[in-house]
## 1
Amino acid sequence: MSSPGVEVPAALAASYARSLGDEGRAWTAALPGLVADLLDRWDLRRDGATSAGAASLVVPVARRDGVRAVLKLQPPRAETAAALAGLRAWDGHGTVRLLDHDPGSGTMLLERLDGARTLATLPDDGVVIQVLAELHARLLAVPPAPGLPHLRDVAAALLEQVPRAVPGLADPAERRVLRDWAAVVAELAAEPGDRMLHWDLHYDNVLAAEREPWLAIDPEPLVGDPGFDLWPALDSRWDDVVAGGDARRVVRRRFDVLTEVLDLDRERAAGWTLGRLLQNALWDVEDGAPALAPAALVTAEALRGGPPGPQPSGRS
């Protein structure tokens, strides 16, 4: 089937040029030819406007039998291989369904979902967190795919980085907070868990679908304790959470729903969530941030039952 050539969004091209230099520019330059090759090979036609995710090109297509799908193109890396393994294991059980895959390029052919309708479009946060928690429970019920990265290794790497990161924080009190989070992770690290985690299950990574009301997209599968998987949901729509005037209460309510639906030990789940805050903080310090994110501090206080106090105005 012949189709007009695809245009790579400028933002995606610029992102890869910044992050990968010549390699990134070469990858984005090759995308139109790759799309044309895959359309011919898989007998597809273009069926909508091309868009871009954070790190991928998304091309709506239709198969000869009329089934609507999307091509998702991203460089073939370890993260792509993990996502493929996870999607095969879930096999549409709570996630977007993988229809085909090109090993050479890392391209996925996925079932078409409604990209304009995410869970974040629903106004009632109580309804949203309940839907997400029930979907999360379905994902956790599927045994892990072989060969996925493991939380034990992630935790070990985090603890190794902490001594180098601490001096990068300007406030001695925040240095103590970072050490405290690390101490909690060190206590939990001997039992890192054995469930297959999505690792990025926030409100915008759940889309409306025809096959089911809601399905998860963009997994970054990891084997470990489900407590390490809660933070994206706790942090979703953060600007709205802060604007409501009681961010700690919202975090605690979301945490309560997640731990109840997923049947998690609350203390362990809170501890592994602090581990996720530690991971984010280490990334921020590596990028030059001199302070912990206000959202992280609010979340940590909420999980530890800290008293309400002045609410930060945002993420900065």
## 2
Amino acid sequence: MSDNELLSTGWMMKKHRDHGREDFSMNIARRSAIVSLLAAASFLVSACKSSEPAPEQGADPVTVRAAEVTGGQTEGVSLRFSGIVRAAQRATLTFQVSGTLRERAVELGQTVKTGDLLARVYNPALEPARDSAAARLDELRTQYDQAKREWERSRQLHERGVVSEQGLEQLASRRDSLKASMATAEASLAEATRLLRESELRAPFDGRVEALLVERDEFVASGQPVMRLSSPEGREVEVRVPAYMLNHVSLSQLLPVWSVQDRNRAPVTGSIVEIAQPGGVRGELHPVLVSLPADTLEPGEPVEVGITPRETVATTVPLLSVMKSNGGASVFRISDGVARRVPVTVQRIIGERVVVDASDLSAGDQVVFAGMTRISDGDSVEVR
């Protein structure tokens, strides 16, 4: 090997050694940078953890509102049925004859006395029929008087032997026939007079005109309503109840009546005067008539009548306490400051409470009715 080749070989070996030292130095620098980054990240994580607040030992109880569960007889809960106050004495007036309404002597809301003329219809056949019946009666009465005189004279002549027995009997038969015809004519005259009198509508009692149903110059058929009249004396309300409620009412029973327009007003006490008998129509409601004290509620005022079922054993909770979920209806019962979910079966609604079937509920238990959306089963609660 020549001197030049030896020099070249030495230079190459030196170059490889220098390159190896550079690679080793770069690896050491890279590892030092990675270690520094991991240390910085660990420091930041520990700093963040140290800045977070420590978890509380126990959560604050949720504030809710609760009510008691009631059980036993529901004597204190009334079912309310709506109705409208009306006058106890009222009438829808009609004509018994047809004709044109020629006269209306009253206005809407006017007070009238018994016998006052309210309206009159005109029928062109009524007066001629009355006059014809009167003329026929006069004619028959004249013939009857003549027949009586003839029979009296014939009787006297018969006693003297001038008139035969057969002739006297014929005169008596004619007299009796005219008497019967005269009675028929009197009945016809009375009927024609009554029909003419029916063309006038008069007040059957003291009262006030509630409605005018026909205008002047309109044709009125026989039996067609013309106006409504009511008396200021006495008030009543009719409510309709299911058939099973008829077992819980009786004549002269006192019931509370609330005014719908004034909820803050104390209820008045009414008395049952009429009760309908149950029928065979499915789902039919039956009327119950309640008499109201005088000078308490005005006609047309909407009211609610309370009827309390007797001897009904049930467990009731507030209507707002019942929740509906996928698992069915349930309530939150409070026991030792902890809310527990109790499944219930809803039977019916009574006013603002619900009759439920729940074996885990008893009278006196506390159930949540406000704040239920903020709690779950097992949460601590505070009742306010």
